[in-house]
Amino acid sequence: MRNNLSGGRSTNLVREIVFMGIMIAVDVVAVRFLSFNMITMRIGTGFIANIVAGMYLGPVRAGIVGLIADLIGFTLFPVGVFFPGFTLSAVVSGALSGFFLEGKKSSQKFNIIAYALISTLLVDTLMNTTWLVLMLHDGAFSKFMFRLMPRIPNQIAVIVLKIILVPILYRTLFKRFRA
User: Fold this and answer.
1) What is the 3-state secondary structure (H, E, C) of the chain?
2) What are the C-alpha distances in Å from 175 to residues 48, 96, 100, 157?
3) pTM given for the model
4) 50 in Cβ contact with 27 (< 8 Å)
5) How far apart, in whole angstroms, are the C-alpha atoms of residue 61 and residue 64?
6) Positive or negative CA dihedral for 61, 66, 69, 74?
C-alpha cells in the first residue's frame, strides 16, 4: 500500500488547502482593514484575493474561499448585523472569478472584461444594493434606484481597476508561481 504522504495527488490537495487558507486570510485583511466603509457601500481591495483565488483554484474552490472569508471576517470583525445575502455575494464573486479567470483564461481579454463587468455589475452593484435595500427595509424600487445611483461612478472605477489588475496579477503571480 502506497503512503499518501510521499507525494502525488495528496501533495496537490495540501497545497490547494494551504493556498485557500492564505487567500482567506488575504481577503479578510483586505476587506476588514484595507477598505473604507461608508453607510451604504464599502470601497476596498477585497476583490484582489478573489481574482488570485479564481486564477489558481477555479470556480468551486474560489467560491468556498469567498464563503469562508466572509464568515470568518464577520465573526472576527463584525460591521453591522450579519445578513446572509452578502455571504452569497462573496460566494458568487469567487465563483465568477474562477469561471472567467481560471488558469490561462486570465490572459484572454474577453474573459478579463467579462469578469470585470459581470462581477462588478451583478455582484457589487445589483446583488449588494438589493441586500442593502432588503436589510434596511426599504423595499420600494425608488429606494433601490436611490441607493444604486451613487454607486455607479465607484463601480465604473472598479471595473477599470479589475481590467488593469487581472493581467498584472496574471503576469506577476500566476505565471511565476504556476511554473
Assistant:
1) CCCHHHCCHHHHHHHHHHHHHHHHHHHHHHHHHCCEECCCCEECCCHHHHHHHHHHHHHHHHHHHHHHHHHHHHHHCCCCCCCHHHHHHHHHHHHHHHHHHCHHHHHCHHHHHHHHHHHHHHHHHHHHHHHHHHHCCCCCHHHHHHHHCCHHHHHHHHHHHHHHHHHHHHHHHHHHHHC
2) 16, 20, 17, 26
3) 0.85
4) yes
5) 5
6) negative
Question: pLDDT (tens digit, 9 = 90+) per residue, 8-46?
Answer: 677 788 989 999 999 999 999 998 888 776 655 666 788
C-alpha cell at 27: 481577503
Question: Which amino acid belongs to residue 160?
Answer: V
| Total Cβ atoms within 10 A of residue 168 | 9
Look at residues 136, 147, 144, 143 and name the one whose alpha carbon lies nearest to residue 80.
136
Amino acid at 35: S
Are 116 and 159 within 8 A, CB to CB? yes
What does the block give as the cell for 97?
472569478
Nearest Cα residue to 48 out of 175, 158, 171, 176:
158
Q: How far apart are the two ends of the chain, measured CA to CA in Å? A: 31
Which residue matches cell numbers 503512503?
Answer: 3
